[in-house]
Amino acid sequence: MPEETIIELTRKQLYDEIWEISVVGLARKYDISYSRLMKQIKEATIPVPPSGYWTQLRYGKLITKPELPDPADAIVSLYKTVPRIRIKKKKDEPPPKRIEKKEAKSTKSEPAPSAIAGGASLKETATPPAIDTAASAVSEKHAVSEPETYTRYGQTYNVYDRETLYKEVWEAPVTEVAKRYQVSDVAIHKVCKALEIPKPPAGYWAKLRAGKSVSIKPLPKSDRATRKIGIRTGVTDQLEAEKEALAFFSEEHRSAILAVASQILLSDEDTRMHPKIIAHRKAVVEWKKQHKNSDTRGWNRRTSGPAPVLADSISDETLLRVCRIIDALIKAMEPLGCSLTDSLSFFVNGETVLLSFSEFKDKVTHIPTKEENMQILKYEEERTRYSWAAKPQIRKYDHFFNGRLSLVINGKKSFRDCKSYVLEDRLGDIMIELYEAAEEIKKAREEAERKHQEEECRKEERRKRYNVEVDKTLALTSFAEDYDIACKIRRYVAVVEASGKPDEKAAEWIEWAKAKADWYDPTVSREDEFFGKREHEKDAEKKKLEHKAYWR
Q: Cα 443–447–452 angle (5° rounding)?
């Protein structure tokens, strides 16, 4: 494979640059593939910053920097590899171009290829993509050249060129291309179909991010028109939720997380795992040992304790694989302030995020065992003599674990093994989704707390209004009772006056009684010499007249 020398440095100079701007920054500086540069650094036995180093450095934590082993003045030549194109022949199909990546296993992120119609000119980008960085790089590349358009009767139309659009759909996802043309991705798919432009298959971009080899279909010959006109709608199918990843963090914190996510790797099989993973594996093994020969149906299953996480959802063979995935994630995220719970959930940004692993099963026709065949023979024999013979219940199918994993984060976002990639290829995406899920949980909790506070305020406000209404109603009742007493006194005085000509003493009493009626009457509210003004709003017990003792 031909090689192109970029620069020659001493081991000391290369060591200083690595620890000053990171391996990613060095790859970007000299326009070298990250994986290729990493391989050359390892061959030169130059120590590199460990996972979490830059985060600890930003937050002022204590860090250790290993010394550069001798010889420091040895010359190291940095070069990038020009990949060769291998033609894969198929029947009745033009040969696709395939990018061979020998270093794919050393890193989970590789640059995106750039396909050119008519002959594949493939170019590697320097930055290993963490989250669709290949697509963003292409967007930046084409930012300077806007799509060709023309305006008629106040409406803007896109002019789709067959070869140009072919390059664009293989350099970036269709959704990104649609943004440039200001249409929906459905419109781009229809244009590609009309112009007979092949598109990347399902899983192509995920496979590319994982550093695996990808095949680019060449642009076939066509007798149709090479250009197509389409109206520019000004909208896309992209939801606003599909915005920049981790946008809720500060730029510094976000950059640190993305840097770690872009370099996360599985540890070697002989590497010691996280202590909580080791303890949980022992608990799973112990639980399976206790329940291996026990009947877990009916009453026994109801009385048995709950199974540990991963105990009954995956096979023994896949358990180690799941543990290694969790181990890689927590070792990358612990320097960022995350932790692992005893049930293997992640405590991220102050929230607990649940990870649910499950293994797919294959459905296979059940082959009766020797005991089941004996039951069937016994049933056939009894059926000839007894009409009440019970047919044995033998299942028709067996279900066996097949090793394909599925991961659901917080009951929403899911990842699974497929033809294009496996979970180990998506560790960076999974890590980012853990932060996204933690933010969703935080927002949901804050929203629930806000609604709870609003409900409490509403209840308190209603309680206060209720109590005010009670007080007003009781006061009304007290006013009515006092008025009723005043009316009774006046009716009695009228009867006394009508009973005969009153003498001087009786007339004096009548005036006194009328004054007391006015004192009781809330519409008059006359002030009394001894009792003052009557507090009509109070209840009868509090307004009750009492004799004063000598000490009062």
A: 150
